[in-house]
Structure of Acyl-coenzyme A oxidase:
Amino acid sequence: MMTAKRINPDLQRERDAATIDPEELTRIIFDGAKELDKKRKLEDAVFNDPDYKSIPLNFMSREEQYEEGIRRSAIAVTKKEALGDLIENHNDLISYNTLACGIGNAFFLHESMFADSIKRMATDELKQKMMPLQQKFEIIGTYAQTEMGHGTFLRGLETTAHYDPNTQEFVLNSPTVTSTKWWPGALGKTSTHAVVLAQLYTQGKCHGIHPFVVQLRSLEDHKSLPGITLGDIGPKFGYGANDNGFLRLNNHRIPRENMLMKYSQVAPDGTYTKPPKAELTYGTMTFIRSMIVRASAFGLARGTTIAIRYSAVRRQSEMRPGEPEPQVLSYPTQQYKLFPLLATAYAFFFVQKKMVETYSVVNQQINDGDYTRIQELHGLSSGLKAFTSWATNVGLEICRMSCGGHGYSMSSGFPKLYVDFTPNCTYEGENTVLLLQTARFLVKSLKEGKRGAKLPGTVAYLSSNVTELRARATSAGRDLKDPRLLVALYKERAMRQIMFASDKVEAARSEGLDLVGALNRASVHLVRAANAHSHLLVVENFHEKLQELKVSQKLKKTLLQLFQLYALDGITNCSGEFLEDGILSGTEVKAIRQYVVELLPLIRVNAVALVDAFDFRDEVLDSVLGRYDGNVYEELLKWALSSPLNKTDVHPSYDKYLKPLLHRNRSKL
Ligand SMILES: CCC/C=C/C(=O)SCCNC(=O)CCNC(=O)[C@H](O)C(C)(C)COP(=O)([O-])OP(=O)([O-])OC[C@H]1O[C@@H](n2cnc3c(N)ncnc32)[C@H](O)[C@@H]1OP(=O)([O-])[O-]
Ligand SMILES: Cc1cc2nc3c(=O)[nH]c(=O)nc-3n(C[C@H](O)[C@H](O)[C@H](O)COP(=O)(O)OP(=O)(O)OC[C@H]3O[C@@H](n4cnc5c(N)ncnc54)[C@H](O)[C@@H]3O)c2cc1C
């Protein structure tokens, strides 16, 4: 796999001292030897192909980034066809596209939200017409929902689709400036079509937002069609290669059949039939939210790989005069910054698998017309999306700072990693808003649990009461490192936070507020409750995985240490919530702080092996600091020398500005 000419001796020593075989762990992360082999073959297919070589992104203008993104995305489509069995499922496709497109996949939305919306919500006739065009890339689609004025509040979207029974067409309009579609990826310059969300009007009545397939550009010369105004929204925090766009519609007509009518219909005479469940329109967002949990695991794994490898190579500060400078990885404070994040990355890898499995089961049920678990899936995917993406967002910045000055250089890989990751906290549902959705589900479940209803798996614990939970925690013994006790403690904390938030909602209700007002008044507590619940799911799932995994004793021990670090560090970070209800005593919290510190040197032994197990190739990491061979300093110098500013010894600005300044007094001498 990774070929290294000369490995930095410090890094080599770390690898030699490890007690675990990273390859054993890699096989677990990537679902077995066969899947791992496929992943590596896909990587070889991309990285051994000269067509996928690019100049470093950091030295490109935005226009060059966009063009390079399109070039790579387009060749990835054609080359993919030759890869046969290597791309068997959606995950393979995502992995391949991420590798091949590198700088940014111009067709991500085409293959995800656009395709998914049609598959999920179109009539069979429309599917048969659109899907072959989509799959063969004869059209390029995106998902245009958000407007300048509203992203979160979907019922507030202003784009209109008025049905005209005379021509059997919908007439689409952007009636206000704020109704301009704003943000959709690949909308500005790339896409020919979009699934557009608009308020449906028929027979003089508004029926709320519905999806429509709208052609935006000519399939002959790519010009925008009459009635359509399109463009790029300009430079952003990151995503330089993506033409996130705007769209205005002016009396743009589309055939009636272009409405996605599997669940709700407009008959030729304009009669409206509503869907069996209004939330079905939101299914595509649920799908991407579940994928963001996976993106969070990979994002944090990438950040910790760079920071931990670099910390093994970097030496700084003599502890005592004349002594060799230690590797910064040897400082407990450095370990305390990075190892809980490493443990978190593993926790997220395991929980993302659970998320994907649950999504796939419930989605199949929904397709079969069984909507009983739709709320549970919404609560789960919203909570985990928000919880994992926020933790990764914060974690990446800690990783960057842990690399000192070099972490600030683009060569570290952190700036791009961060700016491309951080919108995961905003898009597909802003995180606070999503946690409030999860909380709504939790509050309802708690109520139903109290009434004796059978609750679905992820919230089944809410049908117990705190006394039972406390008894369970007590019966688990009081060894604070015992995983069973830790899960029980997190369960009680989640339950109490949910009860507290529910009480606040009830209190507001008894003061006469309606449900919406009461939920809003209690919203700070509700967010905290949803966070505690999502945290529990991650801890509990990690514990279940520990029990299921058939691995060597040494690896089992290391995974247990990671679990303990994740769970114990989590307690120290929100110790107030464990203390306030007496779930833990002050003495116990102090003991837990000490356990966290004691776990650090144990994990230190395998820290490099644990990040090697994530199996990032250098081309993927794209970081001078995180290189597998650890030859950081030589490469930093090489990288700086390749900067366009160093093309010439004397820069042209010298003649224009510096020389006149420096020489201004010469004639007077
Ligand atoms: C590369 C990435 C590219 C990015 C692309 C994008 O960003 S694309 C743009 C991404 N944009 C966004 O993500 C926008 C984020 N905004 C939203 O998703 C919605 O506006 C909302 C959920 C915040 C509120 O919705 P609302 O005002 O309609 O309603 P409400 O709060 O009154 O709830 C009504 C009921 O619906 C339920 N329910 C809701 N969602 C789901 C679901 N998915 N499934 C199942 N159920 C769901 C909810 O639980 C409630 O049930 P209850 O309690 O009555 O039994
Ligand atoms: C890089 C990127 C790519 C995107 N791609 C797409 C795309 O392809 N297609 C598409 O349609 N959209 C896309 N979006 C838009 C994205 O989905 C929205 O920006 C997102 O849903 C958040 O909505 P908003 O911008 O309206 O935020 P706002 O809702 O205005 O959020 C602002 C603040 O208000 C708070 N807030 C809002 N409502 C509530 C509430 N009810 N209770 C408490 N607090 C609240 C939020 O927590 C936040 O702090 C993209 C955005 C980005 C950044």
Summary: The mean pLDDT is 95. The chain has three domains: 14-114, 139-271, 285-460+483-614. The first strand starts at residue 141 and ends at 144. The domain at 285-460+483-614 is CATH 1.20.140.10 (Butyryl-CoA Dehydrogenase, subunit A; domain 3).
